[in-house]
Amino acid sequence: MPANLQSTFDVAQFEALLASRNEPEWLTSRRREAWQAFETAEQPDWRRTNLKGFNLADYSVAEAEVSVEFAGAEGVTILPLAEAIQSHAELVQRVLGSAVQTSRDPYSALNNALVNGGIFIHVAKDVAVEELVRIRYHVANAGTIVAPRTLIVTERHSSINVIEEISSADFAASAVVLTGVEIEVGDGGQVNFSSVQTLNNNVYVLGSQQIRINRDAQAEWLNVVVGSAVQHVTLEANLSGNGSSVNWNGLLYGNGTQNLLVAPKLNHIGLNTEGQINFKTVVDDEAYAVFDGMVKIPATGQGTNSDLRENALHLSKTSRSDSIPGLEIDANEVKAGHGSTSGQIDEEQLFYLQSRGLPFAEAKRTIVLGFVGEIIDMIPDEAVRERVETIVAEKV
Amino acid sequence: MSANNLVIRNLHVAVDGKEILKGINLTIEEGKIHAIMGPNGSGKSTLAYTLAGHPRYEVTEGEVWYKGQDVLDLEPNDRSKLGLFLAFQYPVAVAGVTVANFLRAALNAHRAQEGVDPKSTAIPMAEYRKVIKSRMDMLEMAPDFARRYLNEGFSGGEKKRLEILQMAMLQPSISIMDETDSGLDIDALKIVAEGVNKVKAEKPELGVLVITHYQRLLNYIKPDYVHVLMNGQIVREGGPEMALELEEKGYDFIREEVFGNAS
């Protein structure tokens, strides 16, 4: 086990945990494999994620509080993951672990060993659901490590809208959230998924999200990150099916000493796929935000149309952001654009607003809220949007 | 002399260490329309930005008085509250900030009073909607204009009309129009000029400083006085007939009279 992963939970405790869960053999053996991988893994070389002072021994395993709001609709199954493991074993087996890959790093391995408390959503074919499914994972106590997982599988020609918020109580000590989102969009269908992270500024977040988009299917994906002390989350959109598309937006807003990283990866695997990435970053005080993006167009991805945009705003001299927009193209008939900007608030904008009567601080605030508002306005649930707006308003 | 005149005395202004304005003396009278004409590079926009308080323009000498206050001591927002308005030559785009929200914030900033809860001075929403609607109707603007982001993707004409809308909403007592005619075709120019005249008709005490290179705007906004700015100084002053003379003869004849044949 890597040095800073020294943990209070040893094999015996892990085995006790397994015994208490009474799960099917396939899952138990997966958990054991993941645990072994965790124990033998090297500390990952994460130069942009500050895990100094982070020690797993400080935390004990718990479950996040889960709430789901949805009136229900024919053809839509929403279950606690623990139940779906029994009732939808085949689907869960297929999708569980697609984003959170045991081999990736010790935290992913631990995530798969501990995954507990989560939601499974299945939409039958030809079912279109307008109503928003609202999932909220809430970390109630400091000193805990939780590993909630969201699984969504839609059959062909069906559609659903889901928002997932990860929040916490306002405790002063820290906690750990191992997150995972694993989504499969059936042929010709659509999934709109919003992930909103509003944890308090002492929590560590480590995890992965993946959406696999099949033939002629679409995804709208939103990632909003305003909370946590440290976040390291990899994101992956796989345009696996021919004619599939994703419209992907995101926001990172860090202040204080927050260290927020997303690593979005867009894979144009099928023919004639379309992908748009538009992320915004704001950093203030001593915060450090990282957008580690990658667009891959393998030889199979002929006819790809891809665009990646990332704009960062620095509100203090001591804040930092890194933007790494990567592009790898192995197909010859593609359209691929990317661009990133990074800078301070435009002096001309400030002067323009001031010249209309807005005091300096309000002018600055107006510009920042406008910059982030374009993304925040996309949050489909009013209550969540208001929570994010409140957090952002306190930051500016 | 009325305190409601804007008085500029011996104003020297430098940009990046280079002196652009070299001792401007000018009084903008309450209720009058003044035109400042001059060739490119004469310092017209420098004067406009300096009066509005742009941080890049460094006043090295001189003073500007309005309503008993030394304008140069005030922040740009306080100049706005005092009643100064600058219609920008190049209005600035601000993404994510709608025209309606911005104008409400600007109005509320004007209504705010020191030591008073801003909520108690803020314009009630219903009243605000009525005001902005009536202003937009007056300027013949489509309602969806208010929902657009500030100058984002606006045409040249739309930008200038938004400047006039802002002026109509904020009701300044001195309005500086910096090359409002630049980049406008004749139809757009007429609409913008009409807007200015309507605002002026509603508020006759409004003093206006029209800054322009060409005479054509002055066909629609009739000046009481014309001042010619050249090489950072006001070199000629006269009535409206001077604009026509300049149009006919160009700036060269003045340049020759003032600076000799050298140029």
Question: How would you characterize the overall build of this protein?
Answer:
The complex is a heterodimer of chains A (396) and B (263). In chain A, helix 2 runs antiparallel to helix 5 and helix 6 crosses helix 7. Chain A has 396 residues and is α/β, with parallel strands linked by helices. Chain B is α/β, with parallel strands linked by helices and 263 residues long. Chain B is built from nine helices and twelve strands. Chain B has a six-stranded mixed β-sheet, with helices on both faces. In chain B, strands 2-1-4-5 form a four-stranded antiparallel β-sheet. Chain B has a two-stranded antiparallel ribbon with strand order 7-8. The mean pLDDT of chain B is 93. At the A-B interface, helix 6 and helix 7 of A face helix 2, strand 7, helix 3 and strand 8 of B.
* Radius of gyration of chain B, in angstroms, nearest whole number: 19 Å
- Helix fraction of chain A, binned, reads 10-25%
Cα-to-Cα separation, first versus last residue of chain A: 41 Å
Shape of chain A: globular
Largest interface: A-B, 24 and 29 residues
What gap, in angstroms, lies between the N and C termini of chain B? 38 Å
**Low-pLDDT stretches of chain B:** none
Look at the structure and name the CATH superfamily of the largest domain in chain B: P-loop containing nucleotide triphosphate hydrolases
Protein name (chain B): Cysteine desulfurase
Family (chain B): Belongs to the ABC transporter superfamily. Ycf16 family.
Keywords (chain B): ATP-binding, Nucleotide-binding
InterPro entries (chain B): ABC_transporter-like_ATP-bd (IPR003439), ABC_transporter-like_CS (IPR017871), FeS-cluster_ATPase_SufC (IPR010230), P-loop_NTPase (IPR027417)
